[in-house]
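I have been asked to look over a protein record a colleague put together. Alongside the sequence sits a line of tokens, each denoting a local backbone shape. Please read both lines and tell me whether the tokens look consistent with the sequence. Take the sequence as given and treat only the tokens as open to question. I have pasted the whole thing underneath without changing anything:
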Amino acid sequence: MLSGTPSAAGGPLELGTRFQDLPRYVLAPLPLFVVQPLITRVVSGLASRHPRLFERLAHHQGKRVLIDPLNLPFALSLHVTEKGVIVRAIRRTGAGRHDARIAGTCLTLLELIEGESDSDALFFTRDLMVEGDTEVVVALRNTLDDVDGSLAEDVAAHAGAMSPVLRAVLVKLRTIRKRHA
């Protein structure tokens, strides 16, 4: 039953939900030391392609933001330093102190970085959770708003050997998003 109508068992909505949980299971066995070089490469690539990208965060030095994609087996810790932004993959159990937390599914976070969803609307529908220092979260949101083009495509472009895989995942996520819009 793959009609346009969601069903209790096996319809498009359930398939989308199953796919949304897939990254958690596929990536769970990967140790973070395998994921971290990819994240470092992506952030470095973004910073070189968009040199002014993190300027809005400069006066938030020392702040840490936990970016928590709920359907991944790890979260991202974004630390604003005097030299720029450091992003590390971390286990939620070892997240430590953060000044703010942004949480949502990969699809929700993708919609945010693509600029295709209103963060306020996502917050009020509880698809996006924001906790802590909202000033640094707003600065991060404004930083993302300043990016021309697709930040997700930039991420995929800087992923090295993982680029084709990330691009395929982006295509699938966009397909699911359009189906449920």
Remarks:
- The first strand starts at residue 64 and ends at 69.
